[in-house]
Amino acid sequence: MLKRFILFIINNLFPSFLFKTRKKKIVADSFLGKPFSGNAKYIIERLLELDTSLDIVWLSLDKNIEVPKGVRVVKYNSLQSVYEMATAKIWIDDFRKKYFPKKKKEQYYFQTWHGFSTLKHVEKDIISSLSKEYLKEAIRDGKNSDYMVSGSKTSTGLYKSSFWFDGEVLEFGTPRMDAIIMPNKHVAETVDHKLGLNKDDNVFLYAPTFRDDDKESVSIYDINFKQIKLILERKFGGHWKILLKLHPNISDLEKRLINQNNSLIAASNYEDIQELILRSKFVMTDYSSLMFDAMMADKNVLLYTPDLATYQSNRGFYFKMEDLPFPLFKTEQDLQLGIEYFDYNSYFSSTRKFINDLGIHEDGHAAERTAKYILKKMYE
Prior knowledge:
By secondary structure, the chain is of the alpha/beta class. It has helices spanning 2-13, 38-50, 79-87, 132-144, 153-162, 178-181, 187-195, 225-236, 254-260, 273-279, 290-296, 308-315, 332-340, 344-358, 366-379; strands spanning 22-28, 55-60, 71-75, 88-93, 108-111, 147-149, 168-170, 202-206, 240-244, 264-266, 282-285, 300-304, 328-329. The protein has a 7-stranded parallel sheet with strand order 3-2-1-4-5-6-7, with helices on both faces. A 6-stranded parallel sheet has the order 10-9-8-11-12-13, with helices on both faces.
């Protein structure tokens, strides 16, 4: 009850008009208060290169996160965060905002969304499954968004049809995909340092999405990774490490899974999934859109979907699973055989065709284009 009251006050009664908009102030966050990451991270890095006079605020649940010089960290969903938004010329986000003051006409909101391309139905396309609270947030966020940033023709169409959005779609590419298209040569060193890996380790990344109906069960994610590791080493040679990166909605399950399987390395708190993808040779997921990020990074993508029929009936997909270019397995036995007989040449041919069919326009300069456009609107 108190939370709803606070939400009502912020959304309806906070006196934004009393506070002057500061032309050079930008407020950004990612996925409800995550550390410095997501599309906003890459946009801000380019903004800092283009204009050192900006006042940039990052909203985070953890105020002690690492951010570049020139960025201030403010507690997410705090009273100060509301003040920062009320006085900022530019807002940047990649998820629906829960709390925000009334946006003034001279302010611009760039909604960059967190999915480069998506498999699962979202927003209007699953409206009957959305909670009343989220539905209100989504509609309000969409109506207040001035721009969305797209990396493909399919994403542009989706934003226009399903996001309660009537602003302009900027087909600049997806900022966080810049790290995939034009990777930093020191990424592997960064990941190794943070996770305690050796430079010669081969990496298998397991990053499943969550289930709406059973967020407390670990059984669907509990795989015989010891056997997977043995197969990888037998098939491809070398020493392999398996990283576990859970969706934020189920990250609390990580400790239980690690305790049940000592072949896993915890990576759910790693802030940048792009870096984990780049460090990996294999990426395994189920229905997460990161399959497309990994595809663009030319990684070997596997789909493990033991609950495919149930999940598909509950959520719905934009693609037929059989039309995806990724090997799909419904049982652990099939998964193990699939790794044993993985054919890279066939896989590469399938992914190239799929990329062409999607109409993807990623060239590694999306963040730069977005940053320059933000500065243009800022100084108009």
